[in-house]
Description:
There is one protein chain. By secondary structure, the chain is an alpha+beta fold. Among the domains are: 93-179 and 206-235, Nuclear Transport Factor 2, Chain: A (Roll), CATH 3.10.450.540; 261-353, Nuclear Transport Factor 2, Chain: A, CATH 3.10.450.540. It contains 7 helices and 9 strands, in the order ααααααβββββαββββ. It has helices at 2-33, 41-81, 85-89, 93-108, 114-125, 136-139, 261-277, and strands spanning 150-164, 167-192, 195-222, 225-228, 233-235, 297-309, 314-324, 330-342, 345-353. The termini are far apart.
Amino acid sequence: xxxxxxxxxxxxxxxxxxxxxxxxxxxxxxxxxxxxxxxxxxxxxxxxxxxxxxxxxxxxxxxxxxxxxxxxxxxxxxxxxxxxxxxxxxxxxxxxxxxxxxxxxxxxxxxxxxxxxxxxxxxxxxxxxxxxxxxxxxxxxxxxxxxxxxxxxxxxxxxxxxxxxxxxxxxxxxxxxxxxxxxxxxxxxxxxxxxxxxxxxxxxxxxxxxxxxxxxxxxxxxxxxxxxxxxxxxxxxxxxxxxxxxxxxxxxxxxxxxxxxxxxxxxxxxxxxxxxxxxxxxxxxxxxxxxxxxxxxxxxxxxxxxxxxxxxxxxxxxxxxxxxxxxxxxxxxxxxxxxxxxxxxxxxxxxxxx
Length: 354
């Protein structure tokens, strides 16, 4: 009986153990199925470093842009502060003309005398640019070997100035006289005892020929210092007169034809009469910048008057005829006047010669 009871207890115990084991397995399996959250720390770190790197790059770009902008501003300031290259190299035609006056006389004049020839060469070389690598040809550029006769300068004047690459070409119209020996055969009467006879003999006579030609001189400069860059050369004088069409297209405007037209025309007649005869000090009440002919010419007439109304008053263009007081030769000139009106009186605030 006891044995049966113990067996039943054992069976009961094994049953509970089996149930317990099953429950345990179920709990373990549930724990195994529990989802573990992902580790996002690596992603956060990458994002953070990306943002920091971007900020660093943008900061560097901003610094570089600032430096570059400052450099550009400094360059602009330097460009404004220093004189332009064209201004540094700009040549004064008047100064160059004065410089060349001695050179032209020395170059054109040539005397058939060894001392004069040598002195001429030295003087002309002093006008030339300094050439460190002087060649044999340079030493002979003003050599007058084979000269016969003389060349005498009569007059010269500046004809034109052409801007070439690296120098300016000064062109002078020169007149000179060439003196040259000519062998002639002449007939002379000589005594032959008590008689006279005619004989022919050869003699040397100096002839003259006047020439007019263009002398071309290449010139360079460094500020107010000048030098001749190459040996001058002669060329034919060309005509400076040309047919050039005007490119100025006059604006089409409607002329003023109001009630003040007659008063303006009367004012012009009175004004130009005073302009011709009075001193400029006497025209202060009529002009902003007084000027006059101061009785050097007499007033004739005002013609071709055109009047246009403006915001300030009136613009007038006209032809005015003056005359020489002694012989009545007419002198015509075109003017443009800007007029203002105050209490019925007209005043010239701008006066232009055309």
